[in-house]
Write a structure and sequence with these properties.
The chain is an alpha/beta fold and about 280 residues long. The chain contains 10 helices and 12 strands. It has a 6-stranded mixed beta sheet with strand order 2-1-3-5-6-4. It has a 6-stranded parallel beta sheet with strand order 9-8-7-10-11-12, sandwiched between helices. Involved in the biosynthesis of the chorismate, which leads to the biosynthesis of aromatic amino acids. Catalyzes the reversible NADPH linked reduction of 3-dehydroshikimate (DHSA) to yield shikimate (SA).
Amino acid sequence: MWTKKAEKLFGLIGYPTGHSMSPTMHNEQFRVKELPYYYHAFNVHPDHLKEAVDGMKALGVSGFNVTVPHKVAVMDYLDKIDEEAEIIGAVNTVVNENGQWVGYNTDGRGYVDSLKRVIGDQLKESDILVVGAGGASRAVVTALALYGVASITITNRTVAKAEEIRRMLPENYHINVLNKTDAESQTSTYDVIVNTTSVGMYPHVNETPWVSEGLKRGCLCSDLIYNPLQTRWLEEAAANGANTINGVGMFVGQGALAFQKWTGIEPDTDRMTEVVVEELG
Ligand code: ATR
């Protein structure tokens, strides 16, 4: 941790924030890049969200991340919202731009970047199945649609929520919505399958959100969960020959984009990943 005078302050607001890996991840990057900055996690009760956001501006804070439960509510207290964050309907990164709070969502694009680090330009030609239709799915589907992939199919226990995500995107982004039975019968056609649900998350580590058999050859299975690091679904898919990417990918991806917006500097994502895995370990 920096003990010298920090020239810029960054932070995280959430409730709770005790288990967040963001302070360690960002402070380590400030050290690696020799930036005299500091990142602190602020536990902000929902009743005090407006005061916290206004107060940070008054104090000259340079930017902050937003986590559960403030990602939607914080939008009311910002000066400007980026277009992608507007479509997603949630903000996870705020930047002080000439005294104005500007809200972005780096979750989705951070996720796209993590996939690109694994399969590169192949992502553009990929048919993608997104399992789940909650907040994380919104971010992932929006970013994949804006990036431009071959096709996106959403499946969810509650099909109406998948329909809602399709509706929220501009009409020129064509999204397929399938119920679980129909999507499962087409499992062998997808190049990438991403689990955005909480199925398989600690403590329900034996549950799996999707099948791991009958996958397309070379399929990339991606889980947003990072507790446990390797979910049962990823383990089974890997045993059946699939490539896998765990939830650290998206976490690092969103953090890397936030870091870049705040500092103008490209962070070392390999080191960010190491730090997060160490912390989880
Ligand atoms: P997040 O913001 O992390 O995406 P969320 O908005 O609560 O969380 O969304 C949770 C997702 O996990 C939803 O797609 C949910 O399905 P429903 O929309 O049908 O509720 C899915 N999910 C949670 N538990 C599930 C379970 N046991 N089986 C299938 N899907 C589940």
